[in-house]
């Protein structure tokens, strides 16, 4: 199995190393054979090759069985003509990574980090499914001196395939899909709702509810345990999935997966590159490590391996081994070592 | 002074009556002379005249000194060809109501309603300024059988005037503007950020910070006391202003104002028409009553009158007079009477 790693910028290289250490430690237990190929990506690739997604990186990614991405971006690129995010958007499009999956869960040991009252986050366990290669992200963008325009396009098929993913996931979970749109204003949302209703006919065992994005942005926080699978379009998904990190109260423990129809999937933490603490050895590697677990489960069907890692993370947190962002004093390497010891 | 009232649907008529009772009670104290002209709007207007914004309503609204709107919509219109919201969107456009203002505050007596921990909402006092007549709401909408398109347009001038409003407000408050966009993806957001920087040059006494909408959706909840004036475009403002109601933990105490360049302003609760409790006499009239206070202050410069109402609401809540949605048993008329008694 060939895994391509894109360490990227900021704390990216450190947390990627931690993720790979954990993978190396779990692999023998589950007899998982793999090779790792590291490639330039993001700001690091701009510096090295003048482009955030160099040809060689793209070729390797396309040929991979799975891709691990750590984090990209940094203040030095903020006003540059070429930016790290362009590499990420291009990679999503080139690989057809249309289905972004973000599980939202609360770790027992980290409950106190949530800004929400304990009774609100009790029983929270949902997944945000975000369409990732369509909509206003990939429509025409026109910037003139005195005006600007973005175009939001969706086809029936683009909507259908992501809604199907949501229903398939719901079938294996709580059997409820919440489809989010702005149907009282947008044409794309009117189509979205039609398609969701059409797809629902093939899943009589799953409940479909519709929600307007403004109202959902509220209910996701006030009634988070009402949700099972939330599915939405690209821009709404960007906003709502970041918002969902309010529930655990930290970005530091949230992995994500992005899937295509038949190519390799990509796994990455939802947090950014944290340039302010890069190189200090104090970054929290858990999102990255849990992304490795997601990869084992979703790309390689290694459920046991994923479970080992997730249990080890849980145990380590319960033991009180916490990095600075989680309120503790453990270094990145101490945290990683503790997780490996608990495997 | 001529006030046009649009009671609308559901609980609209009941809460409008309550708002007008309070206005009638405060008017003699501040020697405020006014007339009220009630007009059909929303679903009620569809039923009465076949259109959510009848010509007569629009003509009266244009000739008014201020407009009070209660609430529109109901399940019976959800699948109809003509819907109440279309009247609202048309009214905003016809009156040029480009600046929507939603203050976010926590009432001492209602702190316990917030899903957030007390220390998080301590000191929260910000305003969301939403652009209301541009962007993807008013661009071309195309719905075909197999595809759909929405167009998001902004001109320099449209952005400039709303950003100026935000800076003017910040000058009279905490002297900080947070401008929200998705500048790493959208052309309209790139222009938005350029204009915000341009306008900021005329306000050296006000701090401008930029935030990406995904990140802001998180920080608005985790660090709400960091904000003073949040300004953003139409669609982001729709999502973020609803999301901000998470902080007080109830939609029932949040008023809003919408201003144009030189025509009448419109004041309305941010909550909906609550068809499930319409006519039961148990609706919470506070958002409506506080909208009346906003009208007195912002359209008629009657600061004392606004203050009387706001103090009376505060006092009534502290006395424990609470409607059902706030956890109490007071009816709409009991709540209204208590507020009037406290004026
Ligand atoms: C970096 C940015 C382009 C990206 C997005 O908006 O999709 C990020 O916010 C994300 O959610 O992965
Ligand atoms: C009813 C709807 C069109 C409206 C909007 O999206 O602007 C509402 O959500 C609001 O925020 O006033």
UniProtKB/TrEMBL annotation, chains A, B:
GO molecular function: 3-isopropylmalate dehydrogenase activity; magnesium ion binding; NAD binding
Keyword Manganese annotated: yes
Top enzyme class: oxidoreductase
Binding-site list for substrate: 92, 102, 130, 214
NAD recorded as keyword: yes
Predominant location: cytoplasm
InterPro entries assigned: IsoCit/isopropylmalate_DH_CS, IsoPropMal-DH-like_dom, Isopropylmalate_DH
GO CC, alphabetical: cytosol
Binding annotation for NAD(+): 272-284
EC code: 1.1.1.85
GO biological process: L-leucine biosynthetic process
Cofactor(s) essential for the protein: Mn(2+); Mg(2+)
Catalyzed reactions per annotation: (2R,3S)-3-isopropylmalate + NAD(+) = 4-methyl-2-oxopentanoate + CO2 + NADH
Domain (Isopropylmalate dehydrogenase-like) ranges: 2-339
Superkingdom to which the source organism belongs: Bacteria
Annotated binding of Mg(2+), by residue: 214, 238, 242
Alphabetically ordered keywords of this record: Amino-acid biosynthesis, Branched-chain amino acid biosynthesis, Cytoplasm, Leucine biosynthesis, Magnesium, Manganese, Metal-binding, NAD, Oxidoreductase
Note on how the cofactor is bound: Binds 1 Mg(2+) or Mn(2+) ion per subunit.
UniProt pathway annotation: Amino-acid biosynthesis; L-leucine biosynthesis; L-leucine from 3-methyl-2-oxobutanoate: step 3/4
Location in or out of the cell: Cytoplasm
Subunit structure: Homodimer.
Family: Belongs to the isocitrate and isopropylmalate dehydrogenases family. LeuB type 1 subfamily.
Entry protein name: 3-isopropylmalate dehydrogenase
């Amino acid at each position: 199995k060939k895994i391509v790693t894109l360490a990227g910028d900021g704390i990216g290289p450190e947390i990627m190393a931690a993720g790979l250490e954990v993978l190396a430690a779990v692999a023998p237990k589950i007899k998982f054979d793999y090779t790792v190929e590291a490639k330039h990506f993001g700001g690091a690739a701009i510096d090295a090759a003048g482009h955030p997604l160099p040809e060689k990186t793209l070729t390797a990614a396309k040929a991979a069985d799975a891709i691990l991405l750590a984090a990209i971006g940094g203040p030095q690129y903020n006003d540059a003509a070429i930016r790290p995010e362009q590499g990420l958007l291009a990679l999503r499009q080139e690989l057809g990574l249309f289905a972004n999956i973000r599980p939202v869960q609360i770790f027992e040991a980290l409950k106190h980090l949530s800004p929400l009252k304990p009774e609100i986050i009790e029983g929270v366990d949902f997944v945000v499914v975000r369409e990732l290669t369509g909509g206003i992200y990939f429509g025409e963008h026109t910037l003139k001196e005195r005006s600007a325009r973005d175009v939001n396009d969706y086809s029936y098929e683009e909507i259908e395939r992501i809604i199907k993913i949501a229903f398939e996931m719901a079938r294996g979970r709580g059997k409820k899909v919440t489809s989010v749109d702005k149907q009282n204003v947008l044409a794309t949302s009117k189509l979205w709702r039609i398609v969701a209703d059409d797809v629902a006919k093939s899943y009589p065992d799953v409940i479909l509810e519709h929600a307007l994005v403004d109202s959902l942005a509220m209910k996701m926080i006030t009634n988070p345990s009402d949700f099972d699978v939330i599915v939405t379009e690209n821009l709404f998904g960007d906003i709502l999935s970041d918002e969902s990190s309010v529930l655990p109260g930290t970005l530091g423990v949230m992995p994500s997966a992005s899937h295509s129809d038949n190519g390799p999937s990509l796994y990455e933490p939802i947090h950014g590159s944290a340039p302010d603490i890069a190189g200090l050895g104090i970054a929290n590697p858990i999102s990255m490590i849990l992304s490795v677990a997601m990869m084992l489960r979703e790309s390689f069907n290694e459920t046991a391996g994923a479970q080992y890692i997730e249990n080890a993370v849980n145990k380590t947190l319960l033991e009180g081994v916490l990095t600075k962002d989680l309120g503790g004093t453990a270094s990145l390497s101490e945290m990683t070592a503790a997780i490996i010891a608990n495997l």
